[in-house]
Design brief:
By secondary structure, the protein is an alpha+beta fold. It has 2 domains: 161 residues, Thermophilic metalloprotease-like (3-Layer(aba) Sandwich); 172 residues, no CATH class. It has 12 helices and 19 strands. The chain has a 7-stranded antiparallel β-sheet with strand order 14-13-10-6-5-18-19, with no helix packed on it. Helix 1 packs across helix 2. The chain is globular and about 55 Å long.
């Protein structure tokens, strides 16, 4: 269970998000969606919103009743667009969501089509949110859960503590660091990543737009799909790579965390712009099946991502935003500006602490 959120730590967590990331103003309507396991943080956020003279509304989602409905095959109701919730959304200035349901492991065992029915509300929600002009955040504090912690082999409380600490990192400092790296990427042509443990990889850049995620809702962020919502913790610089340039290899020293498991000891090897080998010490099956089904472009370099957040260390589902973490992916990169690869496959490894050079100049 979560710790007592009447503590000063919980208050600081809520206050930091509301003031530094979302910049809540007096009189604004703040809607907070929290599941059973995240309810203490929803309460803390509501309390701090009132201290800021804003108007909080908590939407409560119950884990047990959710699974009871799923067991009775009543999931069609989850995909609906309820008029009263949409009316509240239309009057919302700031929206905060904490991931749910908590038992992602159980959710992942359901057939894909049932999962799609359960999540069918997502597209309509974003349309309504865009129409309302709201700004918001999805909080990773709602992700740690006993079943997922067991799959990952991590301590749930330690995981949650890292998430909370990383969520309170000053977003302006993240943006300053991120902008410096983004400038170098934007003007560069060749990236070299290397260390003394077997990594030496050259990648290409094409002057494509570079995305800096610092946990702020900026006018630029609002222009992109789903840009009215940030994720916390934040801290990464991302760019779509030249899909035709990649030579060498990168070895992971961080785990690759997915919704249904983790892989360790990953190695990607490229030659003449194509992936020629990928291997993992454990968890390789999480990538092998999707790779076989990935279609055209599955073997091309996808994106480069550089982490900025100093409060994370091999943290589940946040391994790519740890300060100094370098993520290289293969497969689809169409979700990034300028990305041309439409493959369904997305494989990646993360190396934290390697050197990164752009056109021969050291960046990390």
């Amino acid at each position: 269970m979560a710790r007592d959120t009447s503590s000063e730590q919980a208050a600081r967590f809520a206050r930091s998000i509301l003031t530094r990331n979302l910049k809540v103003r007096p009189g604004e309507n703040v809607t907070i969606e929290g599941w059973s396991h995240a309810l203490p943080w929803a309460v803390a956020l509501a309390r701090e919103a009132r201290r800021l003279k804003a108007h909080p509304l908590v939407l409560y989602e119950d884990e047990e009743s959710f699974w009871d409905a799923v067991d009775h095959r009543e999931e069609a109701s989850f995909g609906a667009s309820p008029s009263h919730e949409w009316a509240a959304l239309a009057k919302t200035d700031v929206y905060i969501h904490m991931w749910g349901p908590g038992d992602k492991v159980r959710l992942g065992t359901l057939p894909v089509k049932r999962q799609e029915r359960i999540l069918a509300w997502n597209g309509a929600w974003y349309k309504a949110a865009a129409k309302a002009g709201l700004r918001g955040a999805r909080l990773e504090v709602g992700r740690p859960y006993p079943s997922l912690a067991k799959v990952y082999g991590v301590d749930e409380e330690g995981w949650r503590d890292q998430v909370m600490a990383a969520s309170m990192v000053d977003p302006e400092k993240l943006r300053t660091t991120g902008d410096r790296i983004a400038k170098a990427l934007k003007g560069g042509r060749r990236v070299r990543i290397w260390d003394n443990q077997g990594t030496d990889l050259t990648l290409g850049l094409l002057g494509r737009p570079v995305r800096v995620n610092a946990g702020l809702i900026t006018p630029e962020e609002r222009k992109r799909p789903y840009g009215m919502m940030t994720s916390l913790p934040s801290g990464a610089v991302s760019v779509a790579l030249d899909e035709s340039v990649a030579d060498g290899r990168i070895s992971a020293n961080r785990s690759s965390y997915l919704d249904d498991g983790k892989a360790t000891g990953g190695v990607l090897e490229f030659r003449n712009g194509r992936l020629v080998a990928q291997q993992f010490d454990t968890g390789g099956s999480l990538f092998e099946g999707p790779y076989r089904r990935g279609g055209k472009g599955r073997d091309q370099p996808g994106q480069l991502r550089i982490g900025l957040n100093p409060k994370l260390h091999d943290t589940p589902q946040l391994e790519d935003i740890e300060a100094g973490a370098i993520t290289v992916s293969v497969g689809g990169n169409g979700h990034l500006p300028g990305g041309k690869n439409t493959s369904r496959y997305f494989g990646f490894v993360v190396n934290a602490g390697a050197h990164l050079e752009i056109d021969g100049k050291s960046i990390l």
